[in-house]
């Protein structure tokens, strides 16, 4: 892969970095518009069956990922609901939100980590460098999501984002 992602866990913070061969404005749109998110959000074999985006500070993105890959036998047919509550948005530069596990009604899942995510989009040699900093309530909460396989899931998700960006340029 030409642009691998780097993943670092430091205390209660998880830092993801990757350079995408696409303009910053396009990478930003891919994270802010439902018509883009539906094409790439989630690991391989998963699809968004629900994707409601109210992209503004105080707005909510509520979504459902469903496993449609029969080869993922343990997960096939499984639904995973999530909700982002946007805190700050700087067009083409930054998105800050709290990331929750939720149910189909948007109720936040009790006992599940809810990190504060700060994503920055910067120009980098004609490409876009994306840095995602996830601040978890504790190091234990971060370990919980890592143990759930989050690293593989986010790597596959960002690979799908890269493929989507290449397909629309």
UniProtKB/TrEMBL annotation:
Record-linked InterPro entries: ASHA1/2-like_C, START-like_dom_sf
Q: What is this protein called?
A: SRPBCC domain-containing protein
Q: Which domain of life is it from?
A: Bacteria
The family this protein is said to belong to: Belongs to the AHA1 family.
* Ranges for domain Activator of Hsp90 ATPase homologue 1/2-like C-terminal: 21-165
Q: Which organism is it from?
A: Paenibacillus ehimensis
- Cross-referenced Gene3D superfamilies: 3.30.530.20
């Amino acid at each position: 892969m030409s642009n691998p992602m780097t993943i670092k866990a430091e205390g209660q913070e998880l830092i993801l970095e990757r350079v995408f061969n696409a303009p910053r404005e396009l990478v930003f749109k891919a994270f802010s518009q439902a018509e883009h998110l539906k094409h790439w959000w989630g690991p391989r074999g998963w699809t968004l069956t629900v994707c409601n985006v109210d992209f503004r500070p105080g707005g909510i993105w509520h979504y459902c990922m469903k496993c449609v890959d029969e080869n993922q036998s343990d997960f096939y047919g499984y639904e995973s609901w999530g909700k982002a509550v946007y805190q700050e948005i700087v067009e083409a530069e930054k998105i800050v939100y709290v990331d929750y596990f939720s149910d189909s009604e948007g109720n936040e899942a009790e006992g599940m980590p809810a990190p504060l995510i700060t994503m920055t989009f910067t120009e980098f040699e004609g490409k876009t460098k994306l840095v995602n900093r996830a601040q978890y309530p504790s190091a234990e909460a971060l370990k919980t999501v890592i143990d759930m396989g989050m690293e593989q899931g986010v790597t596959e998700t960002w690979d799908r984002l890269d493929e989507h960006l290449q397909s629309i340029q």
